[in-house]
Amino acid sequence: MSDTSAIDHGREAGFGDFVQLLKPRVMSLVVFTAMVGLIVAPVPVHPFVAFTAILFIALGGGASGALNMWYDADIDRIMRRTKGRPVPTGKVSEGEALGLGLALSGISVMMLGLAANWFAGGFLAFTIFFYVVIYTMWLKRSTPQNIVIGGAAGAFPPMIGWAVSTGGVSVESVLMFAIIFMWTPPHFWALALFMKDDYSNAGVPMLTVTHGRKAARRHIFVYTLLLAPVALALALSSVGGPVVLFAAVVLNALFIRGGWQLLRRDEGAAEADGYKAEKAFFRFSLAYLFLHFGALLVEASLKAYGLGGW
């Protein structure tokens, strides 16, 4: 990869440019789901330990983002969605992105192990490796199943949060993982539907490119159907309760309805109206995940007062 210096654009990289390297929007999802996993776990954690653990999990997520931007700089320059990132614009050099990513990876893993336990630290290290090596370097450019398998990296944070509390894995943490894992493909395929030729221009074999948009719509609908029983299973588990069950029923009914609407959409009509339904489904998919995990937090709060749970 060619290195593009920040001074090519007439100024030195600023603090905000390095923050953007960490993918703060993605980091917010990592922090929130990891925090939920930690809070709903059955073993209490000292508030200071919990705070430091979430901080280092966030740094680990940011490290993954920086390393992803370093490796994907070539295709990021081509795609409209990513060409404004710090590395493609030359605000941050590829070497700086690599150095920051490696440094934060080491710091986050070591400090999480010291602050919480080494199982959680090792889990964070594996998550960073999975996202950077398995997904970014291998799957993303080689198979239309890239986002299906690679989505596991984004689904690990609640399991890491649970591991901070318990030092291990349980059915409940696996179900939290499974919700994000099953949610990821329809979320990203909906994005691919209205990003038009970004992925094909960049040579990324997204499902919309390799199998066509109609096939992507079918897959989105199937995944909304498969996601519903996972959400219901979590609602009926020890971390669930009436609030989580209500959220699961309502949110999944709406998600399935949205998937069905996308399935029935004609491509010509979708393009003519600016992919409004696809964009609405994508936005709702973000709310879907935050509301699901928010319901777990509400349930945990009610349980603390002897009101929630089964």
TrEMBL record:
Molecular function in Gene Ontology: protoheme IX farnesyltransferase activity
GO-annotated biological processes: heme O biosynthetic process
EC number: 2.5.1.141
GO cellular component terms, A-Z: plasma membrane
Pathway stated in the Swiss-Prot or TrEMBL entry: Porphyrin-containing compound metabolism; heme O biosynthesis; heme O from protoheme: step 1/1
Location, primary (coarse class): membrane
Keywords attached to this entry: Cell membrane, Heme biosynthesis, Membrane, Transferase, Transmembrane, Transmembrane helix
Transmembrane parts of this sequence: 26-43, 49-71, 92-112, 118-139, 146-164, 176-195, 220-237, 243-260, 281-302
Matches recorded under InterPro entries: Protohaem_IX_farnesylTrfase, UbiA_prenyltransferase, UbiA_prenylTrfase_CS, UbiA_sf
CDD domains, per database record: PT_UbiA_Cox10 (cd13957)
Keyword Oxidoreductase (UniProt): no
Catalytic activity: heme b + (2E,6E)-farnesyl diphosphate + H2O = Fe(II)-heme o + diphosphate
Topology relative to the membrane: Multi-pass membrane protein
Protein location: Cell membrane
Record carries keyword Transmembrane helix: yes
NCBIfam families from the UniProt entry: cyoE_ctaB (TIGR01473), PRK04375.1-2 (NF003349)
UniProt similarity note: Belongs to the UbiA prenyltransferase family. Protoheme IX farnesyltransferase subfamily.
PANTHER family with a match to the protein in the record: 4-HYDROXYBENZOATE SOLANESYLTRANSFERASE, PROTOHEME IX FARNESYLTRANSFERASE, MITOCHONDRIAL
Subunit details: Interacts with CtaA.
Entry function: Converts heme B (protoheme IX) to heme O by substitution of the vinyl group on carbon 2 of heme B porphyrin ring with a hydroxyethyl farnesyl side group.
Protein's recorded name: Protoheme IX farnesyltransferase
Species the sequence originates in: Albidovulum denitrificans
